[in-house]
Specification:
Blueprint: H1 2-7, H2 15-40, H3 46-53, H4 57-63, H5 67-92, H6 96-109, H7 118-127, E1 134-138, E2 147-151, H8 171-189, H9 199-208, H10 216-234
Antiparallel strand pairs: 1-2
Helix pairs in contact: 2-3, 3-4, 5-6, 5-8, 6-8, 6-9, 6-10, 7-8
């Protein structure tokens, strides 16, 4: 009877704490992935994510069968977060320039530039002006978190899993580009934004104004200062 109670129905009460532990591990892995990918780019190995989460790499793979799946999860969450920030700015700010600058400040302060999904940057170029368009690409070499400019052709994100770079009809990317486009159009129509500024340029500002520095206070100060300079460059000036 005791064996039956311990291994049969006795297993029932243990399912809840196991689920709690699994949920906690998932949260640790996702938080660690955001930090690691934010610092090193999407090319960072799964072992680095596991080490930061303080779990075995097997635990990471149990939740995410491949690195592609984990990268896509982080990219989708970041796209959704940026879209929410853009919608909040669009809906809560009456002045077009205030709405655009609020979106940029909120996005930069949240560190969004270090996790901009590559597919968003690629789609933005295709939807913007042709020719000399240039977009930011994440450097994926370990230990490097800078962003570099790359010509439109070829648009290749080294070491980023292919499945993480979604197709052009990615609904999440399209939603983000649409709402950022509204912010851009409103500010341009009000004469407060330079006529040549595109959605790609706005995303470039988010990416460029998010340096990765070892000291959090220095990083915040550097981001704020750089964003002030970039915002001045976006504003239209009387002829």
């Amino acid at each position: 009877m005791s064996a039956t109670a311990g291994n049969g129905r006795g297993n029932g009460p243990r399912t809840t704490p196991l689920r709690v532990d699994a949920q906690r591990n998932l949260e640790h892995v996702l938080r660690a992935a955001r930090e690691v990918f934010g610092e090193l780019g999407y090319g960072a190995p799964m072992e680095d994510v596991a080490r930061r989460a303080r779990v075995g790499v097997g635990t990471v793979y149990r939740r995410f069968p491949s690195k592609d799946v984990l990268v896509r999860r982080i990219a989708e969450e970041e796209t959704s977060r940026l879209t929410d920030q853009a919608r909040a700015a669009l809906g809560q700010e009456d002045e077009p320039w205030s709405a655009l600058s609020r979106f940029l400040r909120t996005s930069v302060a949240s560190g969004a530039g270090r996790l901009l999904p590559p597919q968003v940057l690629r789609v933005s170029v295709e939807e913007d002006r042709a020719g000399q368009a240039r977009v930011p690409q994440q450097r994926t070499q370990p230990g490097s978190a800078e962003l570099r400019l790359a010509p439109e052709e070829p648009v290749a994100v080294a070491s980023v899993p292919a499945s993480a770079v979604a197709a052009e009809d990615d609904s999440g990317a399209s939603a983000l580009l649409e709402v950022v486009g509204q912010l851009v159009e409103r500010a341009r129509a009000a004469g407060e934004l330079r006529a040549d500024v595109s959605v790609s340029d706005v995303l470039l500002v988010i990416a460029t104004a998010a340096p990765s520095l070892p000291d959090a206070a220095q990083q915040a100060a550097a981001s704020a200062r750089l964003l002030d300079i970039l915002l001045e460059g976006l504003r239209s000036r009387p002829a």
